[in-house]
Design goal:
Layout (H helix, E strand, L loop, with lengths): L1 H20 L29 H12 L16 H9 L1 E5 L5 E6 H4 L2 H7 L3 E9 L5 E6 L10 E2 L2 E3 L14 H15 L12 E11 L5 E12 L11 E7 L1 H13 L8 H20 L11 E3 L2
Parallel strand pairs: 3-8, 7-10
Antiparallel strand pairs: 1-2, 3-6, 4-5, 4-9, 7-8
Pathway: Isoprenoid biosynthesis; dimethylallyl diphosphate biosynthesis; dimethylallyl diphosphate from isopentenyl diphosphate: step 1/1; Porphyrin-containing compound metabolism; chlorophyll biosynthesis
Enzyme class: isomerase
Protein name: isopentenyl-diphosphate Delta-isomerase
């Protein structure tokens, strides 16, 4: 047992060092430097070893093995998604959106960890409209670990525990993360999406299981932007895209509710649609989004 613990602690320390080192790498995207501002002070305990990795190390140590690849317990997972699951460090927050730590994307999406430790991480959802005020939707790729092949808003992801994406002022960290992921998922160049053009409209807190193992527990920033862009989807992330007007979206909702064509919508997108989207769409067209912006309230939705 002592050998198992030693191995787990060593690997956790290596992962922690790697995540901290990446904070100082120059970002290729437009972002605002924190200058002398330090990252939030966090103890070593705020970085947790992925649950499956710890178990795998322990069992192999008992058989005389002293090392194991981080993804051994999930060998069937797509290689790209597996790498992101173990390398990406999500920002852990409390229900008031205060940073309390960081952890691997893997741990943050394990329902066992979410339920046992109430892990809650910061996220964002982008709603991109073209000049005809049509909303760009994406269908998540078949290899996504959570909610594969469901239709959702333009881009949904997480700011990472790095300097440029922890900036609280003017929600710049979340905006930088959105710019990064729109390039990664949809091939939209950063220069076509200036960070100051994203309008943060509100925040929601929700929990949603994907299957028996994976799920989401997110404090989600809702970012709206109106831009005409060229889209080049990354097949590792996106299976399909489409622009829809309001009537076309209502038809998608009808099909999803009726179970037609196997069409499914992501739970966070459905929550935004049911509670806010059509009302906000009017303001998108009128150019009056500032009238409905509410970044003080965190809406707890189920």
């Amino acid at each position: 047992m002592a050998q198992s613990s030693s191995i787990a602690v060593t690997m956790s320390s290596q992962l922690f060092k790697r995540s901290v080192c990446c904070v100082f790498v120059h970002s290729p995207f437009r972002s605002r430097s924190l200058g002398s501002r330090a990252l939030p002070s966090l103890s070593f305990s705020s970085r947790r070893t992925p649950l499956a990795l710890t178990a795998s190390v322990s069992s192999r140590a008992a058989m005389g093995h002293t090392s194991v690849p981080a993804a051994a317990a999930d060998a069937a997972m797509d290689a790209v998604q597996r790498r992101l699951m173990f390398e990406d460090e999500c920002i852990l927050v409390d229900e008031n959106d205060r940073v309390v730590g960081h952890d691997s994307k893997y741990n943050c999406h394990l329902m066992e960890k979410i339920e046992a430790e109430n892990l809650l991480h910061r996220a964002f959802s982008v709603f991109l409209f073209n000049s005809k005020y049509e909303l760009l939707l994406q269908q998540r790729s078949a290899t996504k670990v959570t909610f594969p092949l469901v239709w959702t808003n333009t881009c949904c992801s997480h700011p990472l525990y790095r300097e440029s994406e922890l900036i609280e002022e003017n929600y710049l960290g979340v905006r930088n993360a959105a710019q990064r992921k729109l390039l990664d998922e949809l091939g939209i160049p950063a220069e076509d999406l200036p960070v100051d053009q994203f309008t943060p409209l509100g925040r929601i807190l929700y929990k949603a299981p994907s299957d028996g193992k994976w799920g989401e527990h997110e404090l989600d920033y809702l970012l709206f932007i109106v831009r005409d862009v060229n889209v080049n989807p990354n097949p590792d992330e996106v299976a399909d895209i489409k622009y829809v007007n309001r009537d076309q979206l209502k038809e998608l909702l009808r099909k999803a509710d009726a179970g037609e064509e196997g069409l499914k919508l992501s739970p966070w997108f459905r929550l935004v649609v049911d509670n806010f989207l059509f009302k906000w769409w009017d303001h998108v067209e009128r150019g009056t989004l500032g009238e409905v912006t509410d970044m003080k309230t965190i809406h707890k939705l189920t």
